Amino acid sequence: MLIAQISDCHIRDHDSAFGRLVDTTETLSRVVDHLSALDPAPDVVLATGDLTDDGTPPQYAVLREKLAPIAEKVVPLPGNHDEGPAFRLAFADLLPGDLAADHCSYVIDHFPVRLVGLDTTIPGRHDGRFDPVREEWLNQTLSVDDRPTVVFTHFPPFETGLKFMDQSGVADANRLRATIERHPQVRLLVAGHLHRPVQTTIGATLVSICPSTGNQLNLDLHPQHAAAVNEPPGFQLHRWDGERFVTHTGIVREPSTVRTIDLGHFAATVRHQYEAGEPFRK
Ligand SMILES: [Fe+2]
Ligand SMILES: [Fe+2]
């Protein structure tokens, strides 16, 4: 199973702190074109929040238009920049009808791997909360089925070293980590919010943060520094082979700046030697 992930698209229709840095509508289009051309194609595309900048209906309209080529594969979850009611309305065709009133968490059960979306956003707030209601929901959801599972959420439940993001992250992250550790069938937990590719572990669970499809945050771990940067948009591909997840991070540059060399002849030689059982001599 191949799970693509996009995050932090931040579709906007006016200048903001990052407004002049990257045209997030253009970069999302570029990423969607790239995902549409992948062969093998991903089975699903997790979209892990901050899909718009302000959560307004016009921004969701642009988002849905840009996601149209992959719409039937998108599995959306809100982030702190989204707005619950407008988000639910914009994705009414893709979200289950029985969502809880106070959090947009849900399960997709028809793939070889269970997909469990955990919403820890709070209305009107830029930080998140793993409160007792969500803890009970996640614990119950993970207790009823021990098949290999991916948990996808917006806020990373661990300290990343990007101080200003950690300080505005999800409260009670330690209880969220403890819940994951109690359910080792969670083979992968993926998040967004950080606008960078970042990996760690929780128990035996691989934990990965996806880069933004718009601007990234500068990799600077000085506790008083904070900057956005126009590093290229990115996405992740999480490949499940029945035994383990392997996470790839893709970057998508402007097509005019991309140069490639066809290695087909070399790959054919390698394949021939591999199939013949010959050693790979220098
Ligand atoms: Fe974001
Ligand atoms: Fe966020």
Describe the protein's topology:
Layout: E1 2-6, H1 24-37, E2 44-48, H2 57-67, E3 74-77, H3 84-90, E4 106-108, E5 114-118, E6 128-129, H4 132-143, E7 149-153, H5 163-167, E8 170-171, H6 173-182, E9 186-191, E10 198-202, E11 205-209, E12 216-217, E13 228-229, E14 234-240, E15 245-251, H7 264-276
Parallel strand pairs: 1-2, 2-3, 5-7, 6-8, 7-9, 9-11
Antiparallel strand pairs: 1-14, 4-5, 10-11, 12-13, 14-15
Helix pairs in contact: 1-2
The protein binds fe (ii) ion (FE2) (2 copies).
One fe (ii) ion binds at residues 8, 10, 50, 79, 81, 193, 195.
Question: How would you characterize this protein structure?
Answer:
With 282 residues, the chain is α/β, with parallel strands linked by helices. It has one domain (2-276): Purple Acid Phosphatase, chain A, domain 2 (4-Layer Sandwich), CATH 3.60.21. 26% of the residues lie in helices and 23% in strands. It has 7 helices and 15 strands. The chain has helices spanning 24-37, 57-67, 84-90, 132-143, 163-167, 173-182, 264-276, and strands spanning 2-6, 44-48, 74-77, 106-108, 114-118, 128-129, 149-153, 170-171, 186-191, 198-202, 205-209, 216-217, 228-229, 234-240, 245-251. The strands form 4 sheets. Strands 4-5-7-9-11-10 form a 6-stranded mixed sheet. A 5-stranded mixed sheet has the order 3-2-1-14-15, with no helix packed on it. The chain has a two-stranded parallel ribbon with strand order 6-8. Strand 10 and strand 11 (205-209) form a beta hairpin. Helix 1 packs parallel to helix 2 (57-67). The protein is globular. The structure holds fe (ii) ion (2 copies). Residues 50, 79-81, 154, 193 line the site of one fe (ii) ion.
